[in-house]
Amino acid sequence: MSVFTPVTPEQLSVWLAHYRLGTLxxxxxxxxxxxxxxxxxxxxxxSYVLTLFEKLTPMELPFYLGLMAHLAQHGIPSPAPxxxxxxxxxxxxxxxxxxxxxxxxxxxxxxxxxxHCSELGSTLAEMHLAGQSYQRRLGNPRxxxxxxxxxxxVSPFLDAARAAxxxxxxxxxxxxxxxxxxxxxxxxxxxxxxxxxxxxxxxGVIDFYFAGVDCLxxxxxxxxxxxxxxxxxxxxxxxxxxxxxxxxxxRPLTAPERDAWPAMLRAAALRFWLSRxxxxxxxxxxxxxxxxxxxxxxxxxxxxxxxAGDVPWV
Length: 314
Hints:
Strand content: 5-15%
CATH class of the largest domain: Alpha Beta
Number of domains: 2
Distance between the termini: 41 Å
C-alpha cells in the first residue's frame, strides 16, 4: 500500500471534528499512487477520499484544490474539495497538509475501446475549455524545466544507449517552439487509472496533483500515449482517431498544434520515461511503494521517434 504517512482512526476522528461531515465509520488505505498518501473515508455523512500531501506545499495546494473545485462547478466530474468549519480547503493532519474530497463513482477501464477514448476526448476538451476561466497560475511541475533537472540525476543509472537517447531527445525538445500553442490548466497525468467509468460514461476524473499551466496539446499527447497504445507501446490507430476526433469536435485544434503534434507525442513519452526512471532509481521511503517500469515509456519514445510521420490526426 502506498502510505507514506500512516493515520490512525483516532487521529482522523479528531481531524474530522473540524468538518460538518459526521463521524468516522471506517477508513481504508488506497493501494495505488506514488506521490501522496490516500485513504477512502466513510463518515455518517457520506463517502470521501482523504489525501495527505507528501510533496506539495501549502503554497502550491490552493492551485490544485481550487482547480478541482472550479472544474466541478463547471460540470466536469472532478473531485470537489470539502471546506472545514473555518472555510479552509486543507489543514494539517499528522504533520502533513491534508484535504478531504468527494468520492466519485465508477471503475477504471484497463482495456479501453474506441468508445471509451471518444468519451474521454470529449471530456478532456471540456476540461480545457472550462479551465480557461480559472485564474490561478502554476507552471507544469514536470515540464521541460524539470526534465533538465532530473536528467543528470538519472543518467548515471543508464547504459550508454539509453543515456544517448535521453541526451538526444532533450536536445530535440529544446529546439521546439511551444510559445504559439494554446495554453491553460492541464491535468498532465490523465492515465487509465485516473478516469472512472460508469457504464459508457465518465463518472470521475481524479488525481490532479501533477496539474499545471502548459500547452493543452501536451495534455492530449499524454492521454493518447496511455489510452491508445498496445502493450508494447505501438499506437492503436482506431482508439487514437476516436480520441482525437472527439476532442477536436469540442475544441478545434489549430494549425500550429497540428505542426507540433509529432514532437509533442515525443515530449509526453519523454516526461514519463524520465519520471519513472526517477521514481525507480531514486525512490522515497514508504510502505510497499510500487514504482512503474521505466522501459514502457522508453519504448514509446523510440516508437514515436521512428514513426513520427505516421501519427493519427484529425
